[in-house]
Design goal:
The protein has 7 helices and 6 strands. The protein is an alpha/beta fold. A 6-stranded mixed beta sheet has the order 3-2-1-4-5-6, sandwiched between helices. It is globular, with a radius of gyration of 17 Å.
């Protein structure tokens, strides 16, 4: 499925209607902000395969369609990282080759910098979507955790997608070990279930259902 076809399909599915795609966050008195920025954070280190990057790209397209239908003004900021992070344009984000290790905290530092410079939190609804294969330098795990916790108060909603190999590529009886980043995010989701959500995805056919599960309207008790 090409990206244009994916976008057209997304715009026509019922659960993307405004009345069906609302989620509650921890802000008790939301301000009437009509503009939003979506930060797309992607690991492009050597361990991220083209298959994993394709899954991430397709997810970002769906998320962009959703936000366009919720807000009059939506901007997208692309940040990619290895052991270093940089804001880039869309073409570079998806297509430029990159190698290197993985230091996740650099992506959070770069996002925080951009927010402070261009997106005042009293004027913008700030969203984040992170895609990774779950790898991180062990010495960076605590720093990444602390940075993200510090940023959560100004983030409306954040999704973490862990891209894996296709299920058919796993040997029989294989049990996937929880990655360092998955374990970190799982703890954050447990503490902030209305702010952060996470899913693993290994095949493009899972994408629609994964997206739906992340943004399905939560019924009030």
């Amino acid at each position: 499925m090409e990206i244009a076809e994916l976008q057209a399909r997304a715009s026509g599915i019922p659960y993307l209607d405004k009345t069906d795609l609302r989620f509650h966050n921890t802000v008790k008195h939301p301000q009437p902000i009509t503009q939003a920025v979506m930060f797309c954070l992607m690991d492009v280190s050597g361990s991220m395969t083209e298959h994993m990057k394709d899954l991430a790209k397709r997810f970002y397209i769906l998320l962009y369609v959703f936000l366009k239908r919720q807000y009059k003004d939506v901007q997208v900021v692309f940040i990619r990282h290895t052991h270093e992070a940089m804001e880039v344009d869309e073409d570079t984000f998806f297509h430029s080759p990159e190698t290197g290790g993985t230091v996740v905290s650099t992506a959070y530092i770069e996002m925080n910098r951009v927010v402070k410079e261009r997106f005042p939190i009293d004027q913008w609804n700030i969203y984040a979507a992170q895609a990774s294969d779950g790898d991180n330098t062990a010495s960076d795990n605590d720093k990444s955790h602390n940075l993200l916790i510090h940023m959560l108060p100004y983030i409306q909603y954040m999704t973490y997608i862990e891209c894996t190999r296709s299920q058919e590529n796993f040997p029989p009886g294989f049990v996937r070990r929880e990655s360092d980043l998955w374990q970190m995010m799982k703890g954050i989701v447990a503490e902030h279930p209305n702010k952060v959500a996470m899913r693993a995805i290994g095949h493009k056919d899972q994408l629609i259902e994964v997206f739906r599960s992340l943004f399905r309207k939560k019924v009030a008790d």
